[in-house]
Amino acid sequence: MSPLQVREKNMAQEYGSRIRKLRDAKQLTIEELAGKAGITAGYLGRLERGESGYDNPTLSTIESIAKALELHSSVILFGKVLSPEIELNHTNNIVVSDSIEKRFITKFRKLTGKLERNSIEKMMDAFIELKKST
After folding, report:
1. In terms of DSSP H, where are the helices of 1-134?
2. H helix or E strand, kind and range, residue 87
3. What is the reported pLDDT for 133?
4. Complete domains list, the chain, with CATH
5. How far apart are CA 84 and CA 6, in angstroms?
6. Per-residue pLDDT band at 36 (split at 50, 70, 90)
7. Which of 43, 63, 68, 105 is the right S-S partner for 37, CB 3.0 to 4.6 Å?
8. What is the DSSP code (8-state) at residue 5?
9. How far apart are CA 44 and CA 74, in angstroms?
10. Are 124 and 116 in contact (CB under 8 A)?
11. What angle do helix axes 41-49 and 30-37 make, rounded to 10 degrees?
12. Is the Cβ–Cβ distance between 39 and 64 less than 8 Å?
Protein backbone atom coordinates (compact mmCIF):
# COMPACT_ATOMS: atom_id res chain seq x y z
CA MET A 1 0.00 0.00 0.00
CA SER A 2 1.42 3.38 -1.00
CA PRO A 3 1.78 6.27 1.50
CA LEU A 4 -1.11 8.05 -0.23
CA GLN A 5 -3.35 5.00 0.11
CA VAL A 6 -2.43 4.70 3.80
CA ARG A 7 -3.27 8.38 4.35
CA GLU A 8 -6.61 8.02 2.53
CA LYS A 9 -7.45 4.95 4.62
CA ASN A 10 -6.63 6.84 7.83
CA MET A 11 -8.76 9.81 6.75
CA ALA A 12 -11.69 7.51 5.95
CA GLN A 13 -11.38 5.89 9.38
CA GLU A 14 -11.38 9.37 10.93
CA TYR A 15 -14.60 10.21 9.04
CA GLY A 16 -16.17 7.00 10.30
CA SER A 17 -15.05 7.64 13.85
CA ARG A 18 -16.38 11.21 13.76
CA ILE A 19 -19.71 10.08 12.33
CA ARG A 20 -20.03 7.49 15.11
CA LYS A 21 -19.21 10.05 17.83
CA LEU A 22 -21.62 12.60 16.35
CA ARG A 23 -24.36 9.98 16.01
CA ASP A 24 -23.84 8.92 19.63
CA ALA A 25 -23.89 12.56 20.77
CA LYS A 26 -27.25 13.01 19.04
CA GLN A 27 -28.43 9.75 20.64
CA LEU A 28 -29.34 8.24 17.28
CA THR A 29 -29.15 4.58 16.36
CA ILE A 30 -27.43 3.52 13.15
CA GLU A 31 -30.87 2.77 11.72
CA GLU A 32 -32.24 6.20 12.63
CA LEU A 33 -29.31 8.13 11.17
CA ALA A 34 -29.19 5.96 8.06
CA GLY A 35 -32.91 6.54 7.48
CA LYS A 36 -32.54 10.29 7.84
CA ALA A 37 -29.49 10.29 5.53
CA GLY A 38 -31.11 8.09 2.89
CA ILE A 39 -28.52 5.31 3.13
CA THR A 40 -28.69 1.77 4.47
CA ALA A 41 -27.84 0.97 8.07
CA GLY A 42 -25.37 -1.66 6.86
CA TYR A 43 -23.52 0.89 4.74
CA LEU A 44 -23.42 3.39 7.60
CA GLY A 45 -22.10 0.76 10.00
CA ARG A 46 -19.35 -0.24 7.59
CA LEU A 47 -18.53 3.41 6.98
CA GLU A 48 -18.28 4.07 10.73
CA ARG A 49 -15.90 1.12 11.09
CA GLY A 50 -13.85 2.19 8.06
CA GLU A 51 -14.21 -1.24 6.49
CA SER A 52 -12.38 -1.93 3.27
CA GLY A 53 -14.55 -1.09 0.29
CA TYR A 54 -16.57 1.34 2.41
CA ASP A 55 -13.70 3.59 3.38
CA ASN A 56 -14.08 6.22 0.67
CA PRO A 57 -17.50 7.88 1.00
CA THR A 58 -18.57 10.37 -1.62
CA LEU A 59 -18.97 14.02 -0.70
CA SER A 60 -22.67 13.60 -1.41
CA THR A 61 -22.85 10.84 1.22
CA ILE A 62 -20.94 12.95 3.75
CA GLU A 63 -23.30 15.87 3.09
CA SER A 64 -26.38 13.63 3.48
CA ILE A 65 -25.09 12.33 6.82
CA ALA A 66 -24.19 15.85 7.98
CA LYS A 67 -27.64 17.12 7.03
CA ALA A 68 -29.25 14.25 8.93
CA LEU A 69 -27.11 15.18 11.96
CA GLU A 70 -28.08 18.86 11.48
CA LEU A 71 -24.41 19.79 11.09
CA HIS A 72 -22.17 21.31 8.48
CA SER A 73 -20.22 18.70 6.51
CA SER A 74 -16.97 20.32 7.69
CA VAL A 75 -17.58 18.77 11.11
CA ILE A 76 -17.33 15.29 9.58
CA LEU A 77 -14.54 16.16 7.16
CA PHE A 78 -12.32 18.24 9.45
CA GLY A 79 -13.63 17.65 12.96
CA LYS A 80 -14.73 21.25 13.50
CA VAL A 81 -17.05 23.91 12.21
CA LEU A 82 -15.50 26.35 9.79
CA SER A 83 -15.93 29.32 12.13
CA PRO A 84 -14.90 28.92 15.77
CA GLU A 85 -17.96 30.68 17.12
CA ILE A 86 -20.93 30.68 14.77
CA GLU A 87 -21.82 29.87 11.19
CA LEU A 88 -24.79 28.92 9.05
CA ASN A 89 -24.92 25.28 8.08
CA HIS A 90 -26.24 23.94 4.79
CA THR A 91 -29.86 24.17 5.98
CA ASN A 92 -29.33 27.77 7.17
CA ASN A 93 -29.57 26.72 10.81
CA ILE A 94 -27.23 28.44 13.20
CA VAL A 95 -24.40 26.28 14.46
CA VAL A 96 -22.92 27.57 17.71
CA SER A 97 -19.77 26.18 19.28
CA ASP A 98 -20.09 28.01 22.61
CA SER A 99 -21.43 25.40 25.03
CA ILE A 100 -23.90 27.63 26.90
CA GLU A 101 -25.40 29.02 23.69
CA LYS A 102 -25.38 25.56 22.16
CA ARG A 103 -27.36 24.12 25.10
CA PHE A 104 -29.85 26.98 24.88
CA ILE A 105 -30.36 26.59 21.13
CA THR A 106 -30.63 22.80 21.46
CA LYS A 107 -33.36 23.22 24.08
CA PHE A 108 -35.06 25.92 22.01
CA ARG A 109 -35.10 23.63 18.93
CA LYS A 110 -36.80 20.89 20.98
CA LEU A 111 -39.84 23.11 21.40
CA THR A 112 -42.22 21.83 18.80
CA GLY A 113 -44.85 24.49 18.49
CA LYS A 114 -44.48 27.86 16.84
CA LEU A 115 -46.50 29.33 19.72
CA GLU A 116 -43.95 28.04 22.26
CA ARG A 117 -41.04 29.51 20.31
CA ASN A 118 -42.82 32.83 19.78
CA SER A 119 -43.60 33.07 23.50
CA ILE A 120 -39.96 32.48 24.45
CA GLU A 121 -38.79 34.98 21.85
CA LYS A 122 -41.17 37.60 23.28
CA MET A 123 -39.88 36.90 26.80
CA MET A 124 -36.31 37.28 25.58
CA ASP A 125 -37.17 40.58 23.86
CA ALA A 126 -38.81 41.85 27.05
CA PHE A 127 -35.78 40.82 29.09
CA ILE A 128 -33.45 42.61 26.67
CA GLU A 129 -35.56 45.78 26.92
CA LEU A 130 -35.56 45.53 30.71
CA LYS A 131 -31.75 45.20 30.73
CA LYS A 132 -31.45 48.25 28.47
CA SER A 133 -33.53 50.38 30.82
CA THR A 134 -31.53 49.48 33.93
Report:
1. 3-25, 30-37, 41-49, 59-68, 73-78, 99-110, 114-133
2. strand 86-88
3. 73
4. 3-81 (1.10.260.40)
5. 30
6. very high
7. 68
8. H
9. 18
10. no
11. 110
12. yes
